[in-house]
Amino acid sequence: MMKFYDLDHAATTQLHPDVLQAMMPYLTHAYGNPSSMHALGMQNQKDINTAKKHIASLLKCDFNELIFTASGSEATNLAIKGYAAKHKDKTEIITTPIEHAATKNTLLYLESQGYQVHYVQVDHQGFIDLNDLKSKLNEQTLMVSFIWGNNEIGTIQNIEAITNLAHQHGVCVHVDAVQMLAHVPIDLSILNVDMMSFSGHKIHGPKGIGLLYKKNNIDLEPLIHGGGHEFHYRSGTEHVAGIIGFDRALSLLFPSYDSKAKNLNELSKAFYQGLKAQIPVHLNGPDLTQHRIPGLLSLSIPNISGLKYQFKLNQQHIYVSTGSACHTHEVGISHVIEAIQAPSPEGVIRISFGTDTKMSDIPFLIEAFVEAYEALNDE
């Protein structure tokens, strides 16, 4: 098999072999519908419950505070639209201009339905202006929804400060933690958020499975009506293999958080410093500190097209992104890059390392990036 370098782990991750092994029975002989009242189905329902209880123990929340969905985007939609439908007396929502498309487009839809969306200012590194947030909170504020670890520039927000401000005004908080679950052990018993969205394929789990945490005192209107699955919040026959895979992926991840973050930070630092020594690059988002998602680099490169640079690297089997992969077919400058006023916005690429990248790969990768840059400048 031809060797390639996947530097786009923020888009998705390879399924871990142990996860695939755990899923296989439910893709083959253990295929029963969990709602069926016979052994083939009831065993699957039991296995779903066991997996959910184990995930709850890892995330430190109650079993019945977790709702499985088909994706992180669906989890976010359920949180925002579902909460809005149950609390129609309040019509203002606060968010940021650097949200994932799942939040951004959900709120655009609610705006078309008469809701007023306020966008909190962010600085050039993508950090929320807490004073601006405080000024926008009022008696008509329905909820605050924000991305914890930004999928494009890596900025990690001060979740405690944001949540505390919102709760002082009695406002519900939803957090997009799809990227963060891959990098920090999340303890919901101390975070005090009301709702949080997750996705399986960012943590070496399967695609097609998402998860929404919601506190027991938070009520939602379902988006999908039917047989009353997932405590009546999300009808539809459960993706049993996906649920089992999510549980297994999270189980593998929890003991390795510290070592993984250390490795990714070392790779990021070595690559960025080596590349910057040879070509002009600007790091978008925070410095390489604890306030940045490990392994994620957003780079502005002057006088080139990010799309052309991506194509040149692709020819060498090096895979990067020019923005969020969830809307990569849209040609244009990312709304996140625009919001932070990054330099050379047309020349932005995103690099996100994974555990399959080795320090020994870094010299080759730097050389390949330099060659691609020089080739584009010679055209």
From TrEMBL:
InterPro entries hit by this protein: Aminotrans_V_dom (IPR000192), Aminotrans_V_PyrdxlP_BS (IPR020578), Cysteine_dSase (IPR016454), PyrdxlP-dep_Trfase (IPR015424), PyrdxlP-dep_Trfase_major (IPR015421), PyrdxlP-dep_Trfase_small (IPR015422)
Segments forming domain Aminotransferase class V: 7-362
Classification via Pfam families: Aminotran_5
Domain of life: Bacteria
Enzyme Commission designation: 2.8.1.7
Keywords assigned: Iron, Iron-sulfur, Metal-binding, Pyridoxal phosphate, Transferase
Broad EC category: transferase
Reactions the enzyme catalyzes: (sulfur carrier)-H + L-cysteine = (sulfur carrier)-SH + L-alanine
Cofactor: pyridoxal 5'-phosphate
SUPFAM superfamilies the record matches: PLP-dependent transferases
Protein name (Swiss-Prot/TrEMBL): cysteine desulfurase
Source organism of this protein record: Paracholeplasma manati
